[in-house]
Amino acid sequence: MDHARSTISKIFNGEPRSYTRFNLTQNMEGENSQVEMKLSSDMDEEVGGNGVGEDLNHAKEPYVVHKPAGRTPKNVCFMVATVLLIFIISYLIGYLSHRKTELAPPSCSRSTFEESITEDSVKMEVDPLMDWKDVKSLLDQKMTASSIESAFSEFASESHQAGSAGDMELANKVLGRFKQYGMHTWTDGHFVKLVDPPASGSNMVTFKGSDLGELRGYLAYSKTGTAKGAVLHGNYGQMDDLGKLQDKNIALDGRVLLVRSGKISFAEKVANAAKLNASAVLIYPAGDRQLGGSTQLFGHVHLGSGDPYTPGFPSFNHTQFPPVQSSGLPSILAQTITVNMAATIMKGMEGTTAPAGWVGVGRLGDDKDMVTVEVNNVLSEKLINNVFGVIKGFVDPDRFVVMGAQRDAWGPGFASSTVGTSVLVELARAISDMVKNDGFKPRRSIVFASWSAGEYGSVGATEWLEGYLSSLNMKAFSYINLDGVVSGFPTFKASASPLMYTLIQRTLREVNTLSDSGTLYSAVPGSNWEAAVMEPLRLNDPAYPFITFSGIPSVSFRFTTEGAEYPYLGTLDDTRDKLYGATSNQVAKLAVSAGQFAGKIALRLVHDHLLHLDVEKYIRQIRTHVVAINSKIQKLQSMQPQVLPKLLSVQWLISATGSYSRAASSLSNEIDNSNLEDVEMCRNINDRIMSVERDFLSPYVSPRETPFRHILVGSGSHTLKALSDHLDALQNDQSDADADLFRIQFALATWTIQGCANSLAGEVWSIDNMI
Length: 771
Prior knowledge:
Strand order of the largest sheet: 3-13-15-14-16-18-17
Mean pLDDT: 86
CATH class of the largest domain: Alpha Beta
Strand content: 15-25%
Structural class: alpha/beta
Helix content: 25-40%
Number of helices: 23
Radius of gyration: 34 Å
Shape: globular
CATH superfamily of the largest domain: Zn peptidases
Distance between the termini: 69 Å
Low-confidence stretches: 3-69, 97-126
CATH architecture of the largest domain: 3-Layer(aba) Sandwich
CATH topology of the largest domain: Aminopeptidase
């Protein structure tokens, strides 16, 4: 600035004995533009300085400066222009010097937002990470029983079935709360096929010609029509139960199977019965004294998730597809009945006695115990809306964790939907407040989702997954399910992708029990926490399609009563009073603990530089399947060589397993030795971690025909479990066994594991091609 003032003074004093050189350069490392200015009144300064003058004057001749003859108008104009230019440049120097310190980039941060992030949503620079202890403490302070109770009152509703006015009213309330918190919000609408009870009259069940009474409950997606056959008790309708009937030489062909609820989903019970050619299935509540004898059951029997009339693709408005339906729709009739109706049937049944262990079942029924089932449910198209709000990340806003809860219910649905929706909204409030007022800056985004049509088989959530499949499994790194998080007390149970096991264990240590005398982890009985807490993922788990269809690591969890499921789910008795009675009036406090557990998982995933997903956890699961397959193949080749030739080697599957194990261990070592300040390295490692679940989806099956494509926890002939079962069928010479088909499935499963290992290894030159 002093040089500039000196030059300006000389110009106005009529001594223009200087030259000015301007050099505006752009820093190639991403720094802001800088202005370099050189002023000199002596040509010796330029030539004899740092050599720049020599570069500009290759002839090395001295500069010749001529003194102007006089102040002509032309010279005056030139001087005025020069003064203005120097003034502007001087201003720029001061401005850019000030801005340079302001725009110093943070470590491991991104300089631009993704296109989906609005400019005014968050600041682009990130302060140093808040200490994790402070993050946990803030969440604990903001999640309170009183705020949860308030949310219960706001979101409780007597009638909010999917696609109804009550459902839409709740959707608007959730949307309003998200907007109130300053979140970016949007909705996602789908026209889906849902099922209503008969428009006039009702479904009907008669036993030996006598009508059993009014049926209000029903099973969505049952086949409609009339079926007649001799009744046969099938216990819980599991394949093991039906196998015991076959062991007694009792055929199921044309029979009406009577089963009780529990153990497996309604859809699996009906599918098992259909495999053995039963004509219909009647389901009654399992013997729980808390339920009244006239309690009606509601549910669905689609062996899948989403709209079964648009399998594998989304139900968007104006989308024209040829008529198609899911292979998971049942081919037989299914209907729920009450405990009193079931007692009437069983009292009149004859036949052989039930197998040992079938508590409460007397006679199995014989050919004279005739039952007629009439189902007249109505299929209708309805608009459902999913509601979303997002807290955007400050470093990688295009990577996000999703927390979701269903909003609809058959009746009041307090445990099935109200508690989950309340926890969802309260978590959104708490974390939004942490960002706005407490200086918490998540590295990645958190998406809060309120789903509709959850009671029909996660229809709303699955349609969203189908609609955005190509981008979701590249950007969504976890899903946390909040459905049914409180259904009893005090046992804690969870089901999840193995990738999340380590994070779950760590989070259990960070959430206190209701008495604050210890943590949830310390309250786990026994020495093996996984055996005590973790349950297998099941088809009716709302997290199931996220893992098996979209390849997104997911977790579901709940507080429950040991050895007793909450009996009111799927009934009109799922009320606030019933749930408070089942938990000794601890619902609000349990909901706070559930919110802290879900919130700390989400916050840990968006807080740290690297995702806390343990890729080595899948090694044991893969090896367990491979050991079983290897043993069965060797046994089959030795005993029945004509079925499987000796040239079929398990070595390729073992090698692929080893490749995954080495890639996972290598990545863990890379993480241990990583520089967390390296932006590209952080993102590269996280992308490789995110690829694991996605790469376990078999690329060789159609998402329309076989939507649950995950080879380890999915469903279908492509899974490792199905390979093991196929070997059993070959050994027993079952009619549906096919050695050539097995070999094809075996090869494709092998390469799916190897492909996952290749992706996890990183760069193409790092791929382990031992196979």
